TrEMBL record, chains A, B:
Domain ATPase BadF/BadG/BcrA/BcrD type per the UniProt entry, residue ranges: 10-311
Domain of life: Bacteria
Name assigned to this protein: ATPase
Pfam families tied to this protein: BcrAD_BadFG
Amino acid sequence: MTAGGGAWVLGVDSGGSGVRCALGRAEEGSPAEVLTSDEPVRTGPAGIDAGRLLGQLVPAAMELLARTGAERVAAVAVGAAGMASLGDDLRAKLPAALAGALKVRRLALAADGVTAYAGALGQRPGAVVAAGTGMIALGTDLTRWRRADGWGHLLGDCGGGAWIGRAGLEAAMRAHDGRRGGSAALRERAEALFGPAAELPGLLYPRTDRPAVLASFAPEVARCAASDPVAATILREAARNIAESAAAVCPEAGPADGDSAHGTADESVSECEVALTGGLFHIGDALLAPVRQELAALAPHARTVPAAGDPLAGALLIASALAREELRLPHHPRMLWVTTERDG
Amino acid sequence: MTAGGGAWVLGVDSGGSGVRCALGRAEEGSPAEVLTSDEPVRTGPAGIDAGRLLGQLVPAAMELLARTGAERVAAVAVGAAGMASLGDDLRAKLPAALAGALKVRRLALAADGVTAYAGALGQRPGAVVAAGTGMIALGTDLTRWRRADGWGHLLGDCGGGAWIGRAGLEAAMRAHDGRRGGSAALRERAEALFGPAAELPGLLYPRTDRPAVLASFAPEVARCAASDPVAATILREAARNIAESAAAVCPEAGPADGDSAHGTADESVSECEVALTGGLFHIGDALLAPVRQELAALAPHARTVPAAGDPLAGALLIASALAREELRLPHHPRMLWVTTERDG
C-alpha cells in the first residue's frame, strides 16, 4: 500500500552551513514550507550525531506540520554531508526515533551527493558534480551508483573550493618566500583578507573549520585568474580534476531497457547528462568553461546541463518517491539507505 | 664578561615526537648527558604552551645538573617546532621562568629550522632543508635568515612527509574511484595499512595528528616508486618542491667580508653548502637523487653536504656560542630570539 500522492513528505538537507527542512505534497515537486537553521550538525567521535540532528529535525517538522495543518508525514528523506562515511549513528538511531517522534516509517538517508543528484536530474540516469567547499561526483545508470571523490580536503575533494583556496594560499606563501610558483597577486589578496603572510599558519591551524577557511579564498583565486597566470593555472587544474571525477562516473551503456543492439563503441555510447551543482560554480565561466573543455576531451558523450533544483529539492523528491513507492534511484547501504518499517 | 668555555650549557629540542634535553660544556660540541621524553609539548590556543614546556624542561635540567655535578647552566637554547609562528607564549614567559628556576640569564629561543641549521652547518653560511612530517628550508649569509616553506600541511610543507603521504593516498583514492591519476599499487598499500579505501576518511579526519598519519604513508610511496609510475612522479614532484625551497634560501653573494670585487654573475656566485636533514631523507636515493638533480638545475652553485649533527646538537651549539658570546648566526625576533638579561 502506498501512502498516496496526497500525503505530506519531509525533505532535509544537513550541510556545513546549517540544516534546511522542507515539507511538501508527495505528488508535487516543490516544497509548501521551508525552515532554515544556521546551526550545522557537528560531527562527533561517532560521526554525524543523530541526537543533534534530531534536536533540529523534530521541532522543525512539528513547526512545518503546524504551519500547513498537516497531521503527519508519510516519508522523510535526510541528505547529509558525510553520510556515506560518517552516517552510522544516523542509520542506527533515526528509524526508531522518527517512528517515535513523527510516526513516520518510510525513511531515506542519503549522502549529500545523492540529494544533489536527485535535485539536479530527478530520477534520470546521468551524473552530477556537487562542488562547494568539497567536491563529489555521482553517476548512475539506475542500476548502481558510481562515486568519484568527495573524500575530504586531505584525501581529495580535488578541484573543490577548499582545494582551489588552498592552492591559492600556497602560491601566496611561495611568493612570500621567493619560491618558484609564487603569485604576487594572490599574496596581495591573501594579505588583504588574512593579514601578513607569515601569520597565516597561526590563524588557520587552530581553527576547526579549516576547509571552510581555505575555501573562502577560492573566489579571490577566480578573480585573479583573468590577469594572473598562477591563478589561471589553479583554476584550469581544478577544472581538470572536476572533469576527471565527472568522467569517472558517467554511465556508459545504452538505453536502460537494454533493447537496442550494441554497435561499435561510437554507436553504443549514449549521451550522458552531467549537471554541475553547488556554490563553487557561482565562480562562473572562469571555472565552467575549462570544465566543459576538459570534460569534452575526457568523456565526449557527456553533455553539461543545468540542475533542475538544489539538494533540498532532491531530498523532497526522494521522500515523495518513497511515499509513492516510485523510488527508482538505486538503494545503497551508504549512499541511499532506505527503511520502510511497518507499524508494530 | 663571557660565561667562559668551562661553563655548562643546556640545549633543548621540542618536537612532535617529544622533548630532548642535552647538557654539555660550552667549549665542547657534544653533550655530556641527554634526557629524552616521549611526551610532545602540545600547542594550545596561545601557541606553544610555556607552562607545559617548563614542566618538562626544568625537572630535566635539574636531573642533568645532578648527573654531571654541575651547579648551574650559563645559557639555554630551546629549539621548538612552530616557534616562528606559535612561540609568543614562550618568548613572553621563558626568560623570567628560567631566570627563576635555573638562574640562567642567557636564553635563545630558536625555530626548529634554526637548530637544524646549527646542528648541520654550525655557524657557517649556507642552507639547510629540514624534512620530516613537514618541510622547511633555511639559509643565511650570516647577516640575515632566509626562510622558505615550513608553513604546515595545508599551506605548504611541500615535498615533506605529510605532502608525499597525502599525494600517495590521493592516488589510492583515485584508483578506488576509477579516476585518472590512480595507482593500483598505492591503493593496495593503503588498504593493507589502513583498511578499505572508502573507510579512510572516517579513520583520518577525527584524528588530531592528521599530518603524522599522512606522513606514515610516505615510506610506502617511496617503496612503490621503483615499479609504480604514479609513486615515482610523486617522489619526483616532492624532490622538485624541496629543491625549490632550498634554491630560494641559498645565499648568493661572495665572501661575507665583502672584500672581493663583484665580477660577472658566473664569477661572483660562490658555492653554497646545502645540508639535507631530517627523517624524511632516510627514504634514501629514491628521494635524494632527484633532489640533487633538481637542485643542480635550479641553483648550480649549491652543493649538498652531510649534516654534522642533529637539531639537539644545534641547540647545544647555540647555547655554547651564547655562553661564550660568539653567536654569529643572525638574531631574529621569531627565528632566533636571544635574551641576555643581567642579574638585578
